[in-house]
Amino acid sequence: MAVYALTGFSLVSLLSFGYLSWDWMKPSLVADVATDPMEKSLPPTFTRPPHIIFILTDDQGYHDIGYHGSDIQTPTLDRLAAEGVKLENYYIQPICTPSRSQLITGRYQIHTGLQHSIIRPRQPNCLPLDQVTLPQKLQEAGYSTHMVGKWHLGFYKKECLPTRRGFDTFLGSLTGNVDYYTYDNCDGPGVCGYDLHEGEDVAWDQSGKYSTFLYAQRVSKILASHSPKEPIFIYVAFQAVHTPLQSPKEYIYRYRSMGNVARRKYAAMVTCMDEAVKNITWALKKYGFYDNSVIVFSTDNGGQTFSGGSNWPLRGRKGTYWEGGVRGIGFVHSPLIKRKRRTSWALVHITDWYPTLVSLARGNLSNVQGLDGYNVWPAISEGKESPRTEILHNIDPLYNHAKYGSLQDGFGIWNTAVQASIRVGEWKLLTGDPGYSDWIPPQTLTNFPGSWWNLERLTDGLRKSVWLFNITADPYERYDLSEQRPDVVRTLLMRLVHYNRTAIPVRYPAENPRAHPDFNGGAWGPWASEDDGEEWEGGREPLKSRNKKKKKKCKICKLRSFFRKLNTRLMSNRI
C-alpha cells in the first residue's frame, strides 16, 4: 500500500498526533459551557416581535472559528455562541447561490430550479419571481427590512433586485466575487465591471472602502435611524471571507508567524469579520435593540481549502457534498432564548430559517405552500426535539455524470451516475461524483499544498458511485457502509426518487452578451426590460451607455484597482 507523505509527515504521523481521532464530543471544542442552573430559567416573555439580525459569512470553513479549535482568533463569535446556542448538527449547501436561495425561500433548490451551480453574472436568471421571500413575509408582519452585503441571486432585470424582493434598503454587490476595496468584478478576460449598489443605483462614491467595515458601518447607521419600538430585520451577508484574499495589513500582521501565505491572509479576514460582528452587536446595545433581538450566525458553505480555509476534521471542501462542504458553522444568540449556554445537536438546515423567523415575527405561514423548512425555534430555544428528520442535500442532473455509475447499481430505481446526496436520520447517502474527497488538515506550513494525502486513492474510491455513512457515529465519513447495508442504500435511493418526482426543470440559461458592464456604464446591473420573460435571452443590440461620466469614472476605478493590486502584491512579499 502506498503511503503519501509530505515534508516528513505521513498518515501514520498524523494519527500519532491524534488528527484523525479528534474527539467529536471534546468539551473544549463543542460542548456546553458550564453554567448555573438558574441561567436556564425562562427569559422575559415576548412582548413584541423581536428584532432579527441574520449574519451570513462567505466560504468560512467549519474549522475556522475559535470554539472548533482553530488557530484563528474569533473572540466575538466565540462569546456570542457560548452565551447562546451552538448548532452542531447544522447543514447548508456546498456553494453560494443554493444556500442563499434556500435561506430566502425556505425551499430546496430542486423546487426553485437552481439545483445546478450558481447564477453567473451574464446569465438571464434569478431567484424565481413567483417565490414569496423571507423579507416579504416579514414586511407583511410589520417589519422594516434591510439587506447589507452579497446578493448573488440574479439581477438581469430590475424585478430580480433585492429592493424588489422584499428589502426596503440594500447596500452591497449583486455578483458573487468582487474586490474588497474597488468593487470590481471580472467574469472572464475583458468582462469587468464595478459592483457596489445602493438600492437600485450604482454606489460609485463608496469605492475604496473595505467592504467588511463598510457593511458593519451601514448596519450601525440603520440601527441609529430606526426606533427600537418597531421590529426590524437586517440580513448581513458579508463578502468575507471569499476570495480575493484581501485584508487591512494590521490584521495580517497578527498572523505573521503563519508560514502559509493564503492561510495568513484568510485568517486576517476572519478576524476582521469577527470585529465587524462585534461592532454590530455593540450598535444593537447602544441603540436599544439588543434585549429584544435574535442574532443568527451562519456560514454559506464549506471553506475553500486552496484559498486558506479549513474544514478539518471533516471530509471535503466547498463545492462538495462531503460533510466539509455542507456542514456549517451556526449559532443563535438572544436574550429571548429559554435555555442558553449550550450546544444543540438538533438537526437543522438552512431552509428552516424561513418558517422559524416568520413564526418568531408572528407572521402568517398559512398561505405559503410547499416549504421544505421547519420551525426549529422550540428545538433551539427550549432544547426540544427537532421536527426535521431528513435533508435533501441536492439532486443535480446537469453535473458531470460519474463514470462508473449506472441504473443497475441503483437497484434499477436510480441512476447512480447522477450527483445526489440525502440524509435520513443517522444515514447519509451520496451518488454520482460528490466532489473532492480528501481530509485536509489546517494549512499551517510554508507553501502548504491543498492536501497532504488522498485516502481515496488507497481505497480506489474513484471507481465508486454510491457511498453510505452512519453520519452520527462517523461524522468524518471514514467508513463506507454501502456494501454492508444495501437495504439502507435502497431505502435512501427511494427517498431520492420521491424528491426527484417533485423537482422542477433546471434554470441554467446561456450567458447573454448584453450583460457586459460596458453596456451599463461600466457597472454590473440589470440589462433586460421588465417585459422580457424570466429566461429572456434577447435579440436586440446592446444598449449603449448614456452616462459618459460614469463610464469614465469606471475607467479611473479600474486604473486605481490596478495600482492597488500592484501595491498589495508588493506588500504581500514583505509580510
UniProtKB/TrEMBL annotation:
SUPFAM superfamilies assigned: Alkaline phosphatase-like (SSF53649)
| The entry's keywords | Calcium, Glycoprotein, Hydrolase, Metal-binding
What cofactor requirement does the entry state?
A: Ca(2+)
Which Pfam family is an annotated match for this chain, by its short name?
Sulfatase
Q: Name one GO molecular function term.
A: metal ion binding
Q: Where in this chain does the record put each Sulfatase N-terminal domain?
A: 50-361
Q: Which CDD domains match?
A: 4-S
Q: Where is this region: Disordered?
A: 510-552
Q: Which domain of life is it from?
A: Eukaryota
InterPro entries from the UniProt entry: Alkaline_phosphatase_core_sf, ARSB, Sulfatase_CS, Sulfatase_N
Under the heading PROSITE patterns, the entry gives: SULFATASE_1, SULFATASE_2
Question: PANTHER family in the record, alphabetically?
Answer: ARYLSULFATASE (PTHR10342), ARYLSULFATASE I (PTHR10342:SF68)
Name the family the entry cites.
Belongs to the sulfatase family.
Q: Under which name does UniProt file this protein?
A: ARSI Arylsulfatase
Which organism is the protein's source?
Answer: Chaetorhynchus papuensis
